[in-house]
Amino acid sequence: MKQIISAVALIFTIAAILVIPSAAQDNYTYQQERRPFDYSDKFYVINGIDPAAIVARRTGLDKSSVFDYINDDIHRDVRIIETRTGYDINGNPVFWAFYGDVYKYAFRTDDVGEKAFETANSGAVYLFPSTSVKNAERQSAVIDLAAGGPDKNPLGLATAVIVEYTKKAYTKEGQEILKKIVGANGSTLDGTPIIRSSDEIKQLTRWGMISQRVRSFPYKELSSFLMVNVIRDPRFGAISPDAYLEFTKDGSGKPLEKEMIFIKHFECLQKAGKWCDSK
User: Residue 18 domain-assigned?
Assistant: First the structure.
């Protein structure tokens, strides 16, 4: 009788073990590596990019990345610790990592490379260089990866687009419009309105108040494309303790008033692994 009871208990134990993997798998997914690691050479190649042609690729020896171990074929043992600020197409704040600049010659000369080139041209990272401070951005980038998520655009390829205000923006009519946007979005380093969404970019372009140009023109030393990793869910350890935030500063070196939200959320995510309560 005891043997039968033991056998039954063993069956239930095995059954319980077989049922657990579903929850365990969810927990594994929950615990999966979320920190941004550079991609392996093989992964770049199969997605249409020559890794040797990537400009400013993270090395582990620069101040933007460190050596760290990761056990998969997609990434290599270089973890990016520089975290940048940006807005998605709807104006929501996002954190992202820069993986490198890409010239046209970096795309493979085959069908895979052509597809990657089309993907890069279908999305944009809008950049806002300051007119008052050299080599500085006047606000955070706006990221529009129109090609879709990681399944369709695993390398985060996009066109680097420079956004500048035109003379029309400084007319009396233009200033009245910009004043309203400042009231809603806040001011940039240059005192112009922060542009937060792709809709605002499109509207201001239609009104002739801003211009857009691919970054390589007229400066040929700058590449037309770049690779970004928008951290889709920065919770649960995606922002590591040694990560640091690269953000836009005002004339005194402090964060822009309306972009302080990035600093607050970054600190909450880094220390507690979750958004601040105000999110």
Answer: no
